[in-house]
Predict the 3D structure of the following.
Amino acid sequence: MTPPAPDCGPGAGNTPPAERRFKGHAASSGCVVAPVLVLSRISPADGVREFQISGARVSSEIARFEEAKKETRRQIEALNDELAASARPEDAAIFEGHAMLLEDEMLHGSIVGRISSGRINAEAAVIRSVKEFRSVFERMSDRYMRERAADLDDLGRRLLANLAGGGDSRFDSIVEPCIIVADDISPSETVSLPKGLVLGFATDRGSVTSHAALIARALGIPAVVGLGNAVRSVQPGDMAALDGDCGELILSPSPATVAAVGDRSAATRGGRRAPQAIGPVSLADGRVVSLSANVQDGIPLASIAESGACGVGLYRSEYLWLRESREPSEDEQAAAYSRVAGYVATSVYPGARTVIRVLDIGGDKLLPGVTPEPNPFLGNRSLRFLLSSPAVFRAQLRAILRASARAPVAVMYPMVATLDELRAANAELGHAMSQLAFAGIPFDPGIRRGAMIELPSAALNAAAIAAETDFLSIGTNDLVQYTLGADRGNDSVAYLYQPLNPAVLKLVDMTARAAAGAGIPVAVCGESASDPVAAAVWVALGVDELSMSCGYVPSIRRALSALSSSALDGLAAEIRRRWDRGTASDMQDFVRGYLSSHVSDPASASLFQLPGNV
Ligand code: PEP
Ligand code: MG
């Protein structure tokens, strides 16, 4: 029997002409209907109107610019003070470039000259001057000077925001419940979304594994990304329906659409409220798979317990840094780790463990104001950054160890590229233990250490890595991007983002075999674990644990409990037989068909037909 297709398209009813649909990628499940708030990137290229001013208005326009400049100076000084308090001299320098540019006499003269001689409004003068200076900086051979171009953009945005009378944040204008529509939202912005007011968001750029999407999942709000050109079509206050399951933003939805979306939203909420099974999931013939939660600072702890997860498989510690835009102290970190691990062990599942991943900064997760490296995903990020900043690394390891004395925690290293890095990280852990032992501070000396497999080099070398760790965790978000060479956040190469590409399947298979050979468990903690099709494939290939955003645990539980391990063994054999002669979409079609016809309960077949990550 063909399972029913989800009610996702315009064919579902009579579409009034005023309704406009934008198709993107389903990034976080759920449906909502609300007014739209458009967050525009204030960019020299678009958005702000240029107009002529009279001679009489010149002095007041210059005064307006001077006021905005003063406010900008105040903001930069405040950011500087905040960073100086973090006691890291390299951080304190971040906004010095902005301050120098702000006081630059040539830039100032150029803006004022455009207002007084060109007789244009202050916003237009700022835009034109920033653009002119930017193109000069960009052409310079000196890398330091080229990087100042990004500082100029930042400074320009700040000046424009202050000219508009607005504060420092794009979110200041949010005062009532809304759906945000934006070009893009950075990870540090996502952590400061005003909770309760932002019911969902839709972005023109981004992909389902971009960090903004992951945060939406963690917050349990619907999100659609990669819409292409929705921002330009939306007027503030337009009503919209956001469908995070089908990946659609529907502007001016018809009453029929509102009713349909409302029904699905009620069904989702009902599903979430239903009493959940808790703990590991048993397949139809007894094999057990652990289901854990991916979390970070700022999510309601109760959502972990409500999900039915049996622990935390990934605590993204970098959000402690991103939320405050500064380095948290060792004490603050120890308190945060103890709080979540204590909750997990007592209120989520008795004795359950929290896997704390050490700072995974870099790539698209930049501290505000940090100038990105030329190629940040291949730069000094994650474990590389920590190994080159031993004071930061040791403070974090000590904080994790201190938490281990209060509740079960494990430490996990992201982006391990080589065995040398793993050894160096383990040595740092040993060093942090010695420091605590010397100071008489308690910790768990048997704390489990895990390595993330996110790079092809780590998967290919998984046997050596497994020999020197206690568990492996496959980060498919990054593994897919580094295997296919396709930026996980770039919608224009989203077609290459293929978790079921044979190359990825082979790397996951190698990793699972290496873990089994070493007698250690292996998890998948990338978002693909929340897709029923991919989750089944990972379990078929030998993965013991799946870790995902809380909201997805119940549906993965339902999907896996409808399968037997003998059916999954058959699936693994078929995958291995086919992977040298098929494309990712051949594989996807085959797996969907196989799973739909091997469920023990026919009603579950539709779970393997929903649009998802794969
Ligand atoms: C991953 O890469 O799959 C992962 C879990 O890490 P993050 O998404 O935080 O990069
Ligand atoms: Mg990663």
